[in-house]
Design brief:
Number of helices: 9
Number of domains: 3
Largest sheet: 3 strands, mixed
Helix content: 40-55%
Number of strands: 6
Strand content: 15-25%
């Protein structure tokens, strides 16, 4: 596929899948082996995790984090073509910010149509409206529980269930010497986030302060369609000024004033 054709693709996971095929990785296993080689992860456990992640990325269920994205760029030779890299990065940001790579819209639509169809058939065959309503409710609960189970969240709880909620605020105001939670990085929807050393390795290098671990938290994610576990990110203000950066696709502007 020529570059002009690739630039017609408007979804990151579709572009990723096409580049995999173009690079000769027709199956996820061969791509996982090469990914682990570049990343320096040769253990079986890491290979299995990578294989699962690659299948999720190629199908559009999830998108990779920045460190994984850089490895994919190396494996697929994306950085060898500046125009392709620009298009690849733009689609990734779009998917990260809007959750467009989640197939939930299609799935929900299909399930909604199926629910309407089933309800219609029951209405024509059962005279008791209360029975019909009860059956529809049960059917709907079954769909909801299916979505919850697929997300990895479980009703019997977890260590982040009572964690504080971190809300996204694009503008943060601080004074020198102050520390404040400014963001939270989520894990896979419904699952615990990465450990702090992995999180901080992917954060930008701030000029006016430092980042530190804020512990387990929760955040409302458009991509996950609701609340999900996350790791709070604390910014420690050290110098006066204004700094802007992005964390997991979200733009942040931090203004630091002198301590009073």
């Amino acid at each position: 596929m020529a570059l002009d054709d690739l630039q017609q693709i408007n979804r990151w996971h579709i572009l990723f899948d096409e580049l995999c095929v173009r690079a000769g990785f027709h199956d996820a296993a061969s791509l996982a082996a090469r990914y682990c080689e570049v990343a320096g992860n040769g253990a079986r456990k890491e290979h299995d995790t990578t294989l699962r992640n690659l299948n999720n990325w190629r199908s559009g269920r999830h998108i990779p984090r920045l460190r994984s994205l850089r490895i994919l760029e190396q494996v697929l030779g994306v950085r060898d073509d500046p125009a392709l890299l620009e298009h690849w990065t733009a689609l990734y940001r779009q998917a990260n910010e809007t959750g467009e790579d989640s197939p939930a819209d299609v799935t929900h639509s299909a399930k909604g149509g199926a629910l309407a169809s089933v309800a219609a058939r029951w209405a024509s065959s059962l005279p008791d409206l209360r029975t019909i309503a009860g059956a529809v409710v049960v059917f709907g609960l079954g769909i909801a529980m299916g979505n919850v189970w697929a997300s990895g969240w479980r009703p019997w709880g977890g260590p982040a269930d009572n964690a504080p909620v971190v809300r996204y605020n694009p503008e943060v105001f601080m004074t020198v010497g102050q520390s404040k939670v400014i963001h939270a990085e989520r894990g896979d929807c419904g699952e615990l986030p990465r450990d702090w050393p992995d999180v901080v390795a992917d954060l930008p290098g701030p000029a006016l302060g430092t980042f530190s671990d804020g512990g387990l938290a929760r955040r409302n994610s458009i991509f996950c369609k609701g609340m999900t576990p996350a790791r709070a990110i604390v910014f420690n203000a050290e110098r006066v000024g204004v700094e802007e950066f992005r964390i997991q696709g979200d733009h942040l502007k931090v203004t630091i004033r002198p301590a009073e």
